[in-house]
Predict the 3D structure of the following.
Amino acid sequence: MEREIALEVNNIWLRYKCLSSYSIKKSLLRLKKADTKVFEALKGVSFSLQKGEILGLVGKNGSGKSTMLRAIAGIFSPDEGTIDLHGNTVSLLSIGVGFQRELTGRENIVLSGMLLGFSEEQVRSKMDEIIEFAALGEFIDMPVKTYSSGMHSKLAFSIVAILESDIILVDEVLSVGDSKFKRKSYNKMKQLINDQNHTVVIVSHNPDTIKELCTSVLWLHDGKVRMIGETNEVVNAYEDFMSK
């Protein structure tokens, strides 16, 4: 029996307006409107995922991978097309997203959990487990602005991994942190994936991570779908392309 659809992305176009430093300077000197260039980050991207599916996103830098995750998470609004989460909760695991720098780690756990759609009571019931997994010691009660990038990623991963939303979006954070935490987070991610209740989209530049964790792979190239399908087939084609 076919599993239910968890996520549908239909013909997504997403554009940025860019100002060059030269055009800004020129507009200030001449009191004219600065020239804007439109950069198309995503160009007609479509795919769907069944519940429990693990999709890897590959592509060179600037191909639209992180933009795609942020669109699914609702941070960016597409200019055209639709994203249907089918009523599922979604969380984005990415460095630099979602924390208030002036607040402590403990306060950010509550805030982040509530932004993910959990009640304060639900978040506080998981607080000790999140803090234990993050293993930040006394830093948990210090402002996040004092954290290193590794500490930031530990806390971010712990919140998303322990609270467990339906759709989990992972942007390269499995490669950040000390070796002990890398192993712990990698094993936790495998555990989340194996229970079939979570749908996951992973961006990673590590082909071994993609091959081990993902059930299918989407290759983005210059904002377009270059290839989508079985994991080894797509990763091998992408590696061949990058080696030329």
